[in-house]
Amino acid sequence: MRAFISPKSIIRTFFVVLMALATASCGFHLRGNYMLPDDIAKLSLTSFDQYGQLHRQVKSQFQLHGIEPVAPSAQVPNLHLISERTSERTLSLYQNARAAEYELTYTVQYRIVVPGKGSQSYTTRVNRTFLDNPLTALAKSVERDMIEQEMREQAAKQIMRQLARLTAVFNKMEEEELEALLEQSANSESDEQVSTELGLDVKAQSVPASDNSNQSAMQVESAQ
């Protein structure tokens, strides 16, 4: 049997190779499920609670995505977990006016610092619903703990997704700073040009005055 290679498969293979080369040239590498920039290949992790569950979840995401955790340093990018908070909101009630269903909201605040590029602060939120059955108090407590643990895992994944967008964020910041510098330079050049033109006008106006004084002096001498 002859092996048959269709033009469509050749085009598909060429496209995959082209995308791989473009990914490598842009300074990105596939780590886990996300394309993380080379700037955070080594990353330090600090937290409000070094032994908390959120800290452990983020650290496990580091291992999953090939990020090498290092000690904090001024030359190393840093991910700092600022705080975590769990709040709840009543969604429905029983007939006796007791809360039957809650919406749990887990909020994490964190900051990313990249030396030479700047820092950015973010807030991530995860929502889950929770049924409050008064007849199963123990099971309810266990279920809530499991839900909160799942919310921490989801928040850690969202932090990794934000890290994947980090290069685009800092590139945008650099573009905005460059535009601001160019605008400032253009304004200063415009001010210098205006001041130069004003100086020339003043000088041009002062010359006829000198000529008039000379002419008047000559008239006085001729009269004498």
Task: For the structure shown, list the relevant keywords.
224 residues; alpha/beta; five-stranded mixed sheet; 28% strand
Report what the structure shows.
Keywords: Cell outer membrane, Lipoprotein, Membrane, Palmitate, Signal. It is found in: Cell outer membrane. The protein is of the alpha/beta class and 224 residues long. Helix 2 crosses helix 3. It has a domain of 151 residues: Double Stranded RNA Binding Domain, CATH 3.30.160.150. It is elongated. About 5% of the residues have low confidence.
CATH C-level of the domain at 29-179: Alpha Beta
Number of DSSP strand runs: 7
Class by SSE composition: alpha/beta
Instruction: Report the biggest beta sheet as strand number plus sense, adding barrel if it closes.
Output: 5 strands, mixed
Radius of gyration: 34 Å
- The arrangement of helices and strands along the chain is HEEEHEEEEHH
Supply the number of helical segments. 4
CATH topology of the domain at 29-179: Double Stranded RNA Binding Domain
Low-confidence stretches: 23-33
Rounded mean pLDDT score: 76
Strands of the widest sheet, in order across it, are: 4-3-5-6-7
How much of the sequence lies in strands comes to 25-35%
Identify the overall geometry. Answer: elongated
Question: How would the blueprint of this fold be written?
Answer:
Layout (H helix, E strand, L loop, with lengths): L6 H19 L2 E4 L2 E4 L4 E6 L5 H12 L3 E3 L7 E16 L5 E16 L3 E14 L5 H28 L1 H58 L1
Parallel strand pairs: 3-4, 3-5
Antiparallel strand pairs: 1-2, 5-6, 6-7
